[in-house]
Amino acid sequence: MEKTALFNYILGIADNNLILGQGLGELCGHGPNLETDIALTNIALDLFGQTRSYYQYAAKLSAIHKTEDDVAYLRKEREYKNVLLVEQPNTHFGYVIARQYLFDVFNYLFVEKLQHSKDETLSAIAKKAIKEVSYHKRFSGDWVKRLGDGTEESNQKMQEAIDGLWQYTNELFEMTEADEIALKAGIGVNLSELKEAYYKEVSEVLKEATLTIPENPYFQKGGKQGIHTEHMGYILADLQYMQRTYPNMTW
Amino acid sequence: MKKNWPLWEVFVRSKNGLEHRHFGSLHAADAEMALENARDVYTRRNEGVSIWVVESKYITASNPADNGELFEPAKDKVYRHPTFYNLPDEVKHM
């Protein structure tokens, strides 16, 4: 597979982890209680760990970006390929959980398939990540059920979050040009094939959580092409500040 | 939070063959959440192979005021401990 296409394909995976991890990182020290705070930060760290492996690989393929940090910190907003779902804000705990769960179910299905990639590096990263991703889904899924099937207030807030974020789910399965090329090369995952299993699993959990499955007339998309929502600029401002202000700084 | 979740005690078996040891405590709404929280708080760095959680209220503790009658009489009876045996180096975890 040609280098630029593979580079783009890797970013399509890794940017989701980076941006979602950054959103969770914002909650460090602000979780609803100590245990949940630690759990969310752990998930953020898992995601950063995975994304580092992807970026290290991407940096090897790129002529412009020399290190993983360049890839993570020195791109412009339009060059980030994450889906819109992961850049949605931490409006309240219900949103944090809904965003996490709606992503985790997809991510689990995706990483499961990526293990069989013909690209040895991607396959190795996926094999390492699958257990973490599986735990993320368990954690967020349990919380969806707890809040949905909890008190009247928690149910209403969880429903509000699911309703608000549902419009971003369909983009997860959109095949970009890089996805198509990677699929043909036996490296990539066929995202459209994951869709049925995804909505089936999510619907079952929502039902168990006594939540209503939203019926959206249309879905938002654009993140994969670099067209982001208004929240993305703020995330990148936080994320990139140090490298932009003190170029090449290290710990 | 007006009402705190109940407190749970966490016991972790660090490897097979060893007993579960008390690691600490945490808050959780129920047993399942207590297990998940224990995983996140205590066993994320490869510390264990098994976790027990028990709600703290089910633990009956001795009263420090009773320490005299409970523990003092044993102090001058060294022969109650198997300290006069030489342990072979191969025996670990005694």
Q: What is the compact description of this entry?
A:
Chain A has nine helices and no strands. Chain A has helices at residues 3-25, 34-61, 68-73, 93-114, 120-148, 152-165, 177-184, 195-208, 231-245. The model of chain A has no long low-confidence stretch (mean pLDDT 96).
Structure description:
The complex is a heterodimer of chains A (251) and B (94). Chain A is mainly α. Chain A has a single domain, classed as Ferritin, core subunit, four-helix bundle (Ferritin, Up-down Bundle). Chain A is globular and about 55 Å long. The model of chain A has no long low-confidence stretch (mean pLDDT 96). Chain B is of the alpha+beta class and 94 residues long. Chain B is 18% helix and 22% strand. Chain B is built from 2 helices and 3 strands; from the N terminus they run ββαβα. In chain B, strand 1 and strand 2 form a beta hairpin. Chain B: It comes from Halomarinibacterium sedimenti. Chain B: InterPro entries: PaaB, PaaB_sf. Chain B: This is 1,2-phenylacetyl-CoA epoxidase subunit B.
Form type of chain B: flat
Give the full name of the CATH homologous superfamily of chain B: Phenylacetic acid degradation B
Low-confidence stretches of chain A: none
Which homologous superfamily in CATH is the superfamily of chain A? Ferritin, core subunit, four-helix bundle
The description of the largest β-sheet of chain A is: none
Care to count the β-strands of chain A?
0
Provide the gyration radius of chain B in Å: 18 Å
The CATH topology of chain B is given as Ubiquitin-like (UB roll)
Instruction: Give me the CATH architecture of chain A, please.
Output: Up-down Bundle
The number of distinct helices of chain B, counting runs of at least 4 residues, comes to 2
* Rg over alpha carbons of chain A: 18 Å
